[in-house]
Amino acid sequence: MSVVYSRRLKKELQEIQIEQADPAKRAAGIQLLQAEDLKTWYFSIEVLGESLYKNEVFHLMVRFDPEYPFKSPAVQFVVSDKVKPPVHPHVYTNGHICASILGDDWSPTLSVMAICITIQSMLASCKKKELPEGNDDYVRTAPDNPKKTRFVYHGDSV
Amino acid sequence: MSSDYEYSDDEEYNEYDDDEEAMDVEDGSTSSEEDVEMDVYDDDIKVVSEARKAYEVDYRPLTHQQVKDLMVADIEYISTIFGVGSDVAALLLRHMDWNKDRLTEKYMDDAFSISIAAGISPVPKPSHSGPDRSKRVTRSSKSSKKIEQATISEPFLCPVCFDDTATDTLGLSCGHIFCTGCWAMYTVSKIRDEGEHRVLCMAENCGVVALNPFVHKVLSDDEDTCARYDELLVRNYVACNKNLKYCPFPSCDRSVSCPTASSRSALSTIVPTVSCGADPKHKFCFGCSIDGDHRPVLCVVARMWLKKCRDDSETANWIKSNTKECSKCQSTIEKNGGCNHMTCKKCKYEFCWVCMGPWAEHGTAWYSCNRYDDKSGVEARDAQSKSRASLERYLHYYNRWANHEQSAKLSVELYMKTEKKMEEMQLTTDLTWIEVQFMKKAVDIVENCRTTLKWTYAMAYYLENGNQKAMFEDNQRDLERAVEDLSELLEQPIESETIPVLRQKVTDKSVYVQKRNEILLEDTAKGYLEERWKWNVVVDDL
Ligand SMILES: [Zn+2]
Ligand SMILES: [Zn+2]
Ligand SMILES: [Zn+2]
Ligand SMILES: [Zn+2]
Ligand SMILES: [Zn+2]
Ligand SMILES: [Zn+2]
Ligand SMILES: [Zn+2]
Fold it and tell me: Where is the UBC core domain (chain A) (predicted)?
């Protein structure tokens, strides 16, 4: 683990914890659930206000690449007995997300919280609850880690 | 352009005269295509030849340095006419996929826009109006939460690593500043892990690309990554240039220039087999990704055939086995040489491994092991017998195709054993090294011609029945017979007393085999130009 990796994540974690403690600063609908180490973090995400996902709560799993922040983290929705991924044209039923911020558009100056907010707004702006095209094929052949997938990012309408 | 390189057999082709090379670069500034078309090479890169064979294409093997020189010439050309530095010119060219004409057009039209698009200049600060249409993910929302931008005032806090003690900082023309350590880690990760030559500014949403000197500066003591970066740039240049192709052999850094095969339409009349010149084995097709020599069959037909073989691999698998049963006494016979003339150890029945027919008839005019008798297909009326007939037909060609491939391998393997014996003989007798080399040459010829034969079966499978196909199959049969004869000679027991006679026979046969191979390739190549070959399927994926 590099010095940059740990200093950077400790700093991000510290900022998130300060924000979470302060309702004025907190990003509404996003909550850190678990960050026991500097490898995998969990967040809960919900869209507040009017949206197709009213009253639904989702869990995000964020796994850090050893070269974070130069490489984006692997981010996916948790699929378990308790929580399901959202039905969304860019979210596969295995929890993988097709979003350019997690791939080509990642920049080392972005942060975990920036990703959470992007994904939250991706849900908020959704016009129709439907699965991605080719969901079944993708899920059948998908690698465990979504970062191994070369996504073709769908449209501008996210 | 006046530098025609002439090669002789024993000359190292990668060692050009320095003066010539330097001249090339100067001249190359006009256009690389011209540069290349002037130098005509024969297939085996022996001499510049005017009487080129119809089945050969003009091409030029290039060393890594020569490709670099072509790239530099393009950069210098743009640098001169635009009046910009060569690093800026290089980035503009990379942005336009090295298309000088389109770049010139666009640059003359709107130099400012293209400089932004290429990542040379930052996007000017907008007087924000309207939605940001260039981005796919909502950018506005996350900007509120991004990690705060460094302020240039003291103390500097690197916005990537949060180090506030870093004293060495760097930034591109956009003014986004980061610590040198972060730049280095980021650049190494881009180049090494992602194989990316476009090193973008680390700031979110900033499209400015690092120029070459910046990358080299950041990587200062990391020579490996620097070399990798330079190679990525050259690879990108080659990938964008229709006239150039890298040698596909692993860890070979040479390439080939072949403008005559650069258009898709050219591939409907030529099979551009080329060689990078590093090794006789480094032969490949300029027109497609099939490695090795697939003459005489066109790229598109070869691709079709390989796909068919993949799709039908299960049905045809049994053929590849090395053992068969003698059709007379049913004892198991193993094939361990390249020759298809088999003799059953038990009953002494002599037969052909491919068709299992009696060998004695193979030399006669009425017997054609290579031709498929379409009777059953013509007679087939119901769907089931039709599909059986079409499978039988396919297996006829596939069987021979696979057998030539296998026989070529077996010949080479068998030769390894022979070679040892020959070397021993050289020590115990008064034979010279040269005198024992004839076997090696003959094995190479057999391997080569079996490759031709192999592909003739892919070709014949798709050729429409008729006179033309019959003539093609005559040539195929003659070559096949000659190759089998030579193959058989190569499996003769070698004794020092018989070597002079064997040597004469092998040499004579080798000459004949090569002649037959040339006749076949020449005739098919001319047939493409004369549009003589009619296919039994639609061949238009060109
Ligand atoms: Zn830093
Ligand atoms: Zn920048
Ligand atoms: Zn090569
Ligand atoms: Zn080809
Ligand atoms: Zn037998
Ligand atoms: Zn034999
Ligand atoms: Zn036969």
Answer: 4-158
In this prediction, residue B4 carries a pLDDT of 40
Across B126-140, B178-192, B369-383, B474-488, least confident range: B126-140
User: Is the domain of B335 the same as that of B449?
Assistant: no
pLDDT at residue A88, rounded to an integer: 94
Instruction: Copy the structure tokens of residue B468.
Output: 């033309």
Question: How many independent structural domains does chain B possess?
Answer: 4
Q: pLDDT per residue over A80-123, tens digit each?
A: 999 999 999 999 999 999 888 998 889 999 999 999 999 999 99
Nearest to A156 among B136, B181, B189 (CB): B136
Same domain, yes or no: B357 and B398: no
> Which of A68, A70, A90 is the best mutation test for B, with the most CBs of B within 10 A?
A70
CATH at residue B468: 1.20.120.1750
Search chain A and give the residue with CA nearest B158: A109
Residue B393's region, left for phi above 0, alpha for psi from -120 to 50, else beta, is alpha
Q: Please compute the mean of the pLDDT values over residues B36-56 and round it to a whole number.
A: 54
Q: How many CB atoms lie within 10 A of CB B160?
A: 24
Report helix, strand or coil for B169: strand
In a domain, B270, yes or no: no
Same domain, B480 and B421: yes
B162: which chain A residues are within 8 Å (Cβ-Cβ)?
A: 7-8, 11
Domain count, chain A: 1
User: Domain range for residue A60?
Assistant: 3-136
**Is A102 among the domain residues?**
yes
Task: Classify B178 as helix, strand or coil.
Answer: strand
Does this complex have an ipTM over 0.85?
Answer: yes
